[in-house]
Each structure stands twice: as C-alpha cells, then as structure tokens.
Amino acid sequence: MKFVIVLACLLAVAYANEEADVVKSYQEVNPDSFKYEYELSNHIRALQEGVLHDKENWLVKGEYEFVDPHGKHVQVVYTADEHGYHPKVLL
User: Fold this and answer.
1) Signal sequence span per UniProt (predicted)?
2) Among 79, 17, 85, CA closest to 45
3) How far is residue 89's CA from residue 63's CA, in Å, rounded to a whole number?
4) Is residue 78 part of a domain?
C-alpha cells in the first residue's frame, strides 16, 4: 500500500509539472518503515514517513507544499492511520 501512495504522489507531480527539475530526492524503504522526500525546482516539496504499527496498519505522517496559481504558498501537514487520512492545510 505504501508503494501505491508514494507512486501516485510522484506521478501526479510529474504529470502536473513537466517543466520542473528534481532538486532533492531521498527514499528509504524497509519491511516495517519507509521514508521519502523530494523537492522540485518549481517550489514543490513533499516528505512522508511511516511505520508498521501492527501486522496490518501503518501510521503515516507527512507534508507537502506548493505555490498555487495565484502565487500563494500552500502547505498540507497530515497523518494517516487505521481511522483514515487527517490533513491540516496551512496557508
């Protein structure tokens, strides 16, 4: 499941920002944890990390940020667990 989340995020950014270059990229994948971070030249940045809480449930936290079409900086900080996705938007 974690690979699907990471892949979906990376593909969405890649298709939406064809002109952006990767400035920073890091990933670490283990059987019971993962962490990734990337930053693009167009001021998009994301990081996410998760740990396997029990044999079936992941505890994930992360954030991403970007500049919207009106030039406003948007940051989303979130957690995800067996109860769902819990975002907090910071403008």
Assistant:
1) 1-16
2) 17
3) 10
4) yes
Please enumerate in sequence order all residues whose Cβ is within 8 A of that of 35, keeping only pairs 6 or more positions apart, or say none: 26, 27, 28, 47, 48, 49, 50
What is the total count of domains within the chain? 1
CA 88 to chain centre: 14
Residue 12 has pLDDT above 70, yes or no: no
Residue 11 belongs to some domain of the structure: no
Q: pTM to 2 decimals?
A: 0.74
Residue 4 belongs to a domain: no
For the cut 80, the answer to whether the pLDDT of residue 5 exceeds it is no
Domain range enclosing 46: 20-90
